[in-house]
Write a structure and sequence with these properties.
Length: 93
């Protein structure tokens, strides 16, 4: 008997701001730039990149570039995206 598998995509289960916050928090805590960019890309896809572009005023192409493997989003881009997602960037000790 063959077990049928399906690729898992975190974007399919990030349904609430709380889900998004918990997901991103884990990646911010690890502090690995490439992993964080991948997580931000996943979150953008969970929301729908077109909707996120509309809500942030940032083009789809710019979002893909900012959160792609070689991306380097500005603080402004990061804050606008996080606001549109209903989460905020915080600093803690």
């Amino acid at each position: 008997m063959t077990l049928e598998t399906k690729p898992w995509d975190a974007a399919e289960v990030l349904n609430t701001p709380e889900d998004v916050a918990a997901y991103l928090d884990a990646y911010f805590e690890d502090g690995i730039r490439e992993e964080l960019l991948r997580a931000l890309n996943t979150v953008a896809r969970s929301r729908g990149v077109s909707a996120l572009a509309r809500d942030t005023g940032i083009s789809r192409e710019a979002l893909y570039k900012a959160f792609g493997d070689e991306g380097n989003p500005t603080l402004d881009t990061l804050l606008r995206v996080m606001k549109a997602l209903g989460v905020r960037l915080a600093v803690a000790v």
